[in-house]
Amino acid sequence: MFCLSKSKYCGLWQCPKIAWMKKYMPEEFVADGAAVERMNNGNEVGDLAMGLFGDFVEVTSFDGEKLDLSAMIEKTKEEMEKGTAVICEASFDYNGLYCAVDILKEENGGWAIYEVKSSTHDDKEVYLADIAYQKYVLENCGVNVTGTHLITINSGYVFDGKLDIHKLFRITDVSSAIVPEENSIKGNLMIAERFLRNPAEPDILINENCNKPYKCGFWKHCAKDVPSPSVFDLYRMPFKKKIDYYRKGEAAFPDLILDSGITNEKQLRQMEYALSKKGTYIDKDGIRDFLRTLSYPIYFLDFETMQPVIPRYIGTKPYAQIPFQYSLHYIEHEGGKLEHKEFLAESGADPRRAIAESLCRDIPMNVCVTAYNKAFECTRLKELAEAFPDISEHLLNIEQNIKDLLVPFQSGYYYNRAMGGSFSIKSVLPAIFPDDPALDYHNLEGVHNGGEAMAIFPKIKDMPPEEQITARYNLLKYCELDTLAMVKVWEELLRAAE
Ligand code: SF4
Questions:
Q1: Which ligand 1 atom is the nearest neighbour of the CA of 204?
Q2: Which residues pair with 280 in a beta bridge?
């Protein structure tokens, strides 16, 4: 029998090959940290939204680790017959087409579908396709569908100390909006069936949709024949344009560099250095001009933040970036000793006041502070200043004195071909110091990037004491390396400018 789940159907909307890959080559899927975080957010939001309409029955059932779909379908039937007004994860199967409705609510003599998304956007076509699919399955199972709604996060909601889920969630009636999707369901299902019945890998090349809305988890498999380096490694080119070059057969650098359409100096330098195996490009005047903007005492600052979808701290909105940690290296005067300070909040409580006060203690007013890609640190400092007016003058003084260490790289004053097309500190550091194990993020334990830091910090409060100590140590070491990396990069710029 031809079988399809809601997620496979929605994958079709992005690219028909996704459903095929999920069926025949699921092991090729590479989940990135952000995808896992999105899934966790989705689960948290879904659980909270279940209470939107009062009492409810959730039919989720497990057979060991796996969802027991047959039990869920059976339980849904029982609850509907019993007259349960709100059923969560209500499950249906129509000839192999399966779906679980986030919230199924008795309404207007029938049943209304409420689909919950952890996004703040209610205009994504894929959501409409998702709901249209659910309606198709339910109606073919004999359910009288009397409403279709999308529940998303209200980005304007401000937490005032008591969570109000009726204000946090925004409910949109999508009955009219899903009509075009409803009209194309049969055609889409035919395409899906054609693909899914055929064990031969579909002849679909990488395309614009591989990056929509997120980079497809099967990219590594589908792009395996793309040469390396290629147009997909190129600095700051829109993905659609990269696909155009790929389609023209100009993905490889030797073909690409001959294309007169590329005039961006940094892109041309990237290709030239990659092809000629040149080492490092240095524009001494540019670097000197940048270094003249810095002065002693010099501070190197980096924040770690978390981004809770459901706000828990007074005055914050969904997905607000909440700083919980910083690392600070500093040198008082030329030839002075490198010193280090750090802050890591207690997991669970609101970290903002403690981090703001600690920053004011650790960074004097009117000193030169550096950050790497300063917009992030500056925005966090402005947010803290707004939250705590009594210390805002000091916080804004720090913010106004921040210089961006990214500038010499982004401006093209310093380029090393090992950086490829990225000037993030995670690309720049190993390119300049390839053989220093103390500067290798891979050698850290537990936390290797901001995404991991963001995911671990809120969980610390629920860990056993031993694990808490380890997790906090790992976070401190990770953030410390971020600012040590900035010091090393600055020292390299000083050397290059000599
Ligand atoms: S990488 Fe692109 S072509 Fe391959 S399955 Fe994903 S969206 Fe389709």
A1: 3
A2: 416
Residue 25 phi, psi (nearest 5) = -135, 50
H and E: helices and strands count for the chain: 19, 15
CA distance 315 to 458: 19
Measured in Å, residue 496 CA sits from the centre of ligand 1 at 43
Between the CA of 9 and the centroid of ligand 1 the distance, in Å, is: 14
Q: By CB neighbour count within 10 A (0-12 exposed, 13-18 middle, 19+ buried), where does 114 fall?
A: buried
Q: How far is the CA of 169 from the centre of ligand 1 (A)?
A: 32
Q: Which residue's CA is the closest to the ligand 1 atom numbered 4? A: 222
Main-chain phi, psi angles of 331, to 5 degrees: -130, 125
Which residues fall within 8 angstroms of residue 438, CB to CB, at 6 or more apart? none
pTM assigned to the model: 0.90
Work out the widest C-alpha separation in the chain, in whole angstroms: 81
Beta pairing partners, 338: 331
Looking at the CA of residue 20, tell me the nearest atom of ligand 1: 5
**Dihedral angle, C-alpha 150, 152, 155, 157, nearest 10 °:** 100
Residue nearest to atom 7 of ligand 1 (CA): 210
Mutation test of ligand 1: which of 23, 206, 240 has the most ligand atoms closer than 8 Å to its C-beta? 206
Q: Where are the domains of the chain?
A: 6-197, 227-276, 279-498
Is the CATH code 3.30.420.10 the one for domain 279-498? yes
Q: Which residues line ligand 1 (CB under 6 A)?
A: 14-15, 17-18, 21, 204, 206-207, 209-210, 216, 218-219, 222
Residue identifier of the C-alpha nearest atom 2 of ligand 1: 210
Nearest ligand 1 atom to the CA of 21 is 5
Q: In 3D, which of 141, 165, 155, 10 has the Cα closest to residue 77? A: 141
Q: Residues, the chain, total?
A: 498
Radius of gyration of the chain (CA): 26
Determine how β-strand 322-331 pairs with β-strand 402-404.
Answer: unpaired
**Across-strand partners of 87?**
57, 104
d(CA 374, CA 234): 23
User: What is the 50 CA–ligand 1 centroid distance (Å)?
Assistant: 33
CATH number corresponding to 6-197: 3.90.320
Q: What is the pLDDT of residues 132-179, one digit of tens each?
A: 999 999 999 999 999 999 999 999 999 999 999 999 999 999 999 999
pLDDT digits (tens, 9 = 90+) for 302-347: 999 999 999 999 999 999 999 999 999 999 999 999 999 999 999 9
